[in-house]
Amino acid sequence: MKLFTICLFLVTLTLPANAQETNTKALLTQNENETWLQEYQQLEDSEEKLKMIKAKILYDAQFVGPRPGISLTGLNEEQRQALKERESKKPKVTADCKILFVLQATQSHILDLEKSPQYKSLVEHLETFSISDTILTGTSASAIYGSRARCGVVLLKTEDSKALDYLENINNQK
Questions:
Q1: Which of 118, 63, 64, 57 has its CA nearest to residue 90?
Q2: pTM summary value
Q3: Residue 88, SS3?
Q4: Cα(110)–Cα(166) distance, rounded to whole angstroms?
Q5: Distance between CA 122 and CA 166 in Å, rounded?
Q6: 100-104 and 108-110 strand pairing
Q7: How does 35-47 read in b/e, with b if 16+ C-beta sit within 10 Å?
Q8: pLDDT tens-digit readout, 16-61
Q9: Cβ neighbours of residue 93 closer than 8 Å, sequence gap 6 or more
Q10: Distance (Å, rounded) from C-alpha 98 to C-alpha 29?
Q11: DSSP SS3 for 121
């Protein structure tokens, strides 16, 4: 009985610590994104690819991506102070960079749930759609999408009527 009580006590002590470790991560690194892209490119099954994309987009939503720099040139002291105060209220950046997921249908849609949470229902149903993909990295990604494509771009193309219906519903809700 003593052994059972000790084991139960030890288990209850470690559970909260383990739960916190898996749910809070301080920074999403460029290295992690590069590793993800390599693993993704090795997959051949399109359904598995879409599941992996879905999981990555949902995971990345907890991180705040880098923002462009701010120029204080030409501002008086009061304006500078107001701008610094406004910037200090924004969430702290927690990602070196993020992989850019772009869904191309009748228009291009950037699937970043941090900035566009309205796409969450679409992302949650990704594996039910017929989608083709293309990976862009390096200069080809930057040439099209600029600095936000530093970690790479996954272009998703679809003409699937279910996906188009989801997008239409999202656009009607705006």
A1: 64
A2: 0.74
A3: helix
A4: 14
A5: 6
A6: antiparallel
A7: ebbeebeeeeeee
A8: 333 333 445 678 999 999 999 999 999 999 889 999 999 999 999 9
A9: 64, 65, 66, 67
A10: 8
A11: helix
